[in-house]
Amino acid sequence: MGKFLIVDHTVPVVKSLMTLLAEFGFESISVTQSHAVFSVLEQESIELVLLEADMPVISGLRLLRQLRQTERFQELPIIMVATAANYSMLHDCLEYGANDYLIKPFHTKVLLSRIRMVLKHSSQTHKLLQQVQHRDQLLTQERQKRFRVTEALGQYRKFSNLWTILPDPLQQTFSKILDILGDDKVSLDKHQTELLTQLSSQYADNLSTLLNVNTLEDAVLIFKHRSRLALLEKISLFQGIKSSELMSLVYCLEEIEAEADRVLLTQGQPADSVYFVEEGCLEILVNDERVAQRNIGESVGEMSCLRGEMNASATVKTLLPSKILRIERDAFMEIVNSLPKLWQNVFRDTTTRFSQLSQRISELFQHTPQGLMKVDPQGNVSNEYSTQCTELLGVRQLTGKPVETLIFPKDEVQQEGWRQAFPILFEDSMMDFDMLIQLLPTETRFVLDNGASRECRLSYYPCWSSMKKLVAVDIGLEDITEERRLAREQEALKLEKNIIQKIYDDPDSYLNLIQLAEETLNELDEFEQHMDHPQQFNLVEMTRHLHTLKGISGIFLLNTMKSVVHTLEDHLKIDKTQQTIPVYLRTKIKQGIAELNQQVQYAQAILENMESEVRRRLLGIVIDRDVFENLKDNVFHERWPEVTRYFRQMDQVPVRKLVQHWDQELGKLNEKLDKMIRLRIEGDQFPISQQLALALEGPLGHLLRNCADHGIELPEERLSLGKEEWGIITFRAWQKEQNIVLEIQDDGRGIPEKKVIEKAKKHPQLDQQLVHQYIEENAVWKLLFIPGFSTAEQVTEVSGRGVGMDAVKTMVDEVGGTISIKSAQGKGSTFILTIPVHEEYSTRP
After folding, report:
1. How far is residue 89's CA from residue 83's CA, in Å, rounded to a whole number?
2. Cα separation, 548 vs 806, whole angstroms
3. Is residue 215 very low, low, confident or very high in pLDDT (cuts 50, 70, 90)?
4. What is the distance of C-alpha 170 from the center of its chain?
5. Mind giving me the DSSP string for 420-487?
């Protein structure tokens, strides 16, 4: 029974799937990199493959197509796995040859049923293929029988007039003898007898000279010798050699009937024979790569003998069923040494072959998209490299130069990594070459002296000695600059299209993002003017705005803006006691502000590039005709309460809008944190004002990320605690008197109060009097809202700044609300926000 192969980059999913398969009694192995798939399939007996369709580095669909294009894996059962149902992806999976399609997370019974169905179908297909192969074998045997019968009939026809293919002197002599013997006279006179004796003697002499025999009774043997002689005379090596001299070689030839794929010579093994193709053809392979073919009238193995090489320099095997003439090495050399003129032909043929080889190498260099250079075990370029390499690298002379300085100029980190990894290829190791080259980079990007930027794909090809020892590595360089530029443009267009779709889904939040970004830029510009006295500026407020901007920009796929903001947060983490900012840090802050300004301009340009009518409808307030007519009527008749009610209704959005992006955000967080988290929405569905929704959206995102990062455990930890490996974050909303109540709850580890207290006491920038007050009030959770405090061990894009919870508290205070936390160790935490419905936030008439 074979194993299952799981190809998925998400570690929790792989572990979960392997556990399920083990419960069903199936053994499984996994890989997270697509390039390892073929290696595993070659080494292991794989019964079924579970392949992730939407891997981030290389498309799972592309890998599926590569497997189906490989003959060996065309019938291998493959089930595609994806995170969401998608008609287009399902269509592509089936078109490229997938056997089935599954959606994560897996339902146990469905998974087992689909796997068994695919395996059953594969088994039936395999039996059918065996029956077809058996039928093809019977047909092949029948064809071979017919071929032998046809061949025998052909030989019979040839032998019926055998004398017509004899050399002219023999034919003339034999014809005269037949004329005399065919005379009607009963007896021969003296003259006729003498003439017949003379002709018979002449016939015997000619036959003896040609065949070096006195008598040959077997006519078939005469025919074979004549045909073999004609075969040798066509070979360039024997041109100019007399027929009588070649007859000694003819007598030593042994005929072999060989089926297809029979190996005659093996590279690196003793070459004990020379072979001549009488029928069929041979193929020549060097290091398992086909380099040439030999047809009727051509030979193999003779050069190894003539050059004194004991081992074959290539592998030779029959390509089709063939007839081969064989002579042993010693017998061949004894005959060759007796023919001095033949050595001239050897020199001529060798020179011709080297000339043809040089021409062929030149053609290959011209035809291949790669530049090639040979690198020795010390990592230096040899004198073998193509012109294309010098053009790609911008260096004319490469011999003796360390290869890492050529392909990674000015990148000392990459150079050092290369110097450590490259020598490992030449060490004795249990790993094969294809596995070891995974230590080396596959792409490089550098700038030439003329300022041009270049990107190249790197390929590696082993150079083996006759003893199968690695002596050098050919490195291929393929210019992919234009390919990558087009790919980036396509990716940018695709990203912009997705951003526009996000804007369509929530235009108000996007406008809020641009407004927040502009306000943050103004704050940064003002801070830039106060960098001589940073303590006079409210860094806490600005950092809070940056943190909120980072969260919202990620929702709208503005990933570059998100990265720029994250870097700015690093640079602005300045101690309160710091009197001035170092020059190097000022430069980085100014650079970050300039980059953020570019990203804000890009976000604004997306809106500006829309058609004016689309932008007006998208960003304006659109009402239907009936509502407009009613509103107009109420205005004309001055029914102002009704007018007010209409305006408030138009300003309303459902409370669910607060979490409309959370599923997408959780998907990103699951991938970054290697966790498995689901969202659950409960409570009433009621409208809230647009203004309140925009005020709450950013801070609530902080709470989501806090629950995901700090609250929910890793799947392995949850299983060890007896929990489900999928964590749950629950959002609840309801109205209570004149308040809106929002709850965000996780079923994670809860707040570690001892750890919080310990970190708060040791934090040098926290108000310790306030810290002790909260501890005495038994309100440890309030410590989480102190600006700058965080329980994270390190800063990440998700958390660790100590400003997320502070931003939530500040927002709640601004709208006159309250926030509290309930937590139970090992059971989770609940954040409770109570927001009063003020006049400006009211949704009631």
Report:
1. 11
2. 11
3. very low
4. 71
5. HHGGGGGS--SS-HHHHGGGS-SEEEEE-TTS-EEEEEEEEEEEE-TTS-EEEEEEEEEE-HHHHHHH
pLDDT of residue 128: 59
The pLDDT of residue 845 is 37
Please tell me whether residue 55 adopts helix, strand or coil conformation.
coil
Which residue is associated with the tokens 């003959």?
Answer: 71
Tokens, residue 437: 């080259």
* HSE-CB for 500 with a 13 A CA cutoff: 15
Return the pLDDT at 202.
Answer: 65
Alpha helices in 374-480 (DSSP H): 387-393, 403-407, 412-421, 433-436
Burial 653-664 (b: 16+ CB within 10 A, else e): bebebbbbbbee
Task: Give the mean model confidence (pLDDT) for residues 657-667.
Answer: 85
What angle (nearest 5°) sits at the alpha carbon of residue 554, between those of residues 551 and 555? 90
Q: Summarize pLDDT for 557-607 with one digit per residue, the tens.
A: 888 998 898 888 888 876 656 667 788 888 888 898 899 999 989 988 888
Burial per residue of 95-132, b for 16 or more beta-carbon CB atoms within 10 angstroms, e otherwise: ebbbbbbbbeebeeeebbebbeebbeebeeeeeeeeee
* pLDDT bucket at 322, cuts 50 / 70 / 90: very high
Neighbouring residues of 722: CB distance < 8 A, sequence distance ≥ 6: none
Q: Do 60 and 54 touch, CB atoms closer than 8 A? A: yes
Helix (H, G, I), strand (E, B) or coil at 201: helix
* Owner of token pair 């005399």: 180
Q: Hey, which bits of 309-369 come out as E strands?
A: 315-318, 322-328
| Residue for token pair 């089926």 | 259
Compute, in degrees rounded to 10, the torsion defined by CA atoms 51, 53, 56, 58.
70
- Please count the other Cβ atoms lying within 10 Å of the Cβ belonging to residue 431: 12
The phi, psi pair for 326, rounded to 5°, reads: -120, 145
Beta bridge partners of 289: 286
Rounded to whole angstroms, the Cα distance separating 270 from 57 reads 47
Average pLDDT of the chain is 79
Checking if the pLDDT of 125 tops 80, the result is no
Q: Return d(Cα 731, Cα 729) in angstroms, integer.
A: 7
Cβ atoms 725, 105 nearer than 8 A: no
Tokens 């064809």 locate to 143
- Would you say 390 and 398 are in contact if contact means Cβ atoms under 8 Å apart? yes
**Terminal C-alpha separation, the chain:** 71
> Worst-scoring range by mean pLDDT, 25-34, 147-156, 488-497, 684-693?
147-156
Total residue count of the chain as it appears in this document:
845
Closest-CA residue to 297 (of 245, 336, 364, 239): 239
Helices (H) then strands (E): counts for the chain? 30, 25
Distances (CA, A) of 725 to 347, 454, 709, 823, 830: 76, 46, 15, 20, 20
Pairwise CA distance, residues 458 & 444, whole Å: 7
Q: Is 292 left (phi over 0), alpha (psi -120 to 50) or beta?
A: beta
Put the strands of the sheet holding 254-258 in their side by side order.
Answer: 254-258, 322-328, 273-279, 299-300
23-81: pLDDT as tens digits: 878 888 988 777 788 888 888 888 888 888 877 655 788 888 888 888 888 888 888 88
Please give the C-alpha separations between residue 587 and each of 593, 600, 601, 724, in angstroms, as whole numbers: 10, 20, 21, 49
> Cα 494 from chain centroid?
20
Query: Sign of the CA dihedral 527, 532, 537, 539?
Result: positive
What are 457's strand-pairing partners? 443, 478
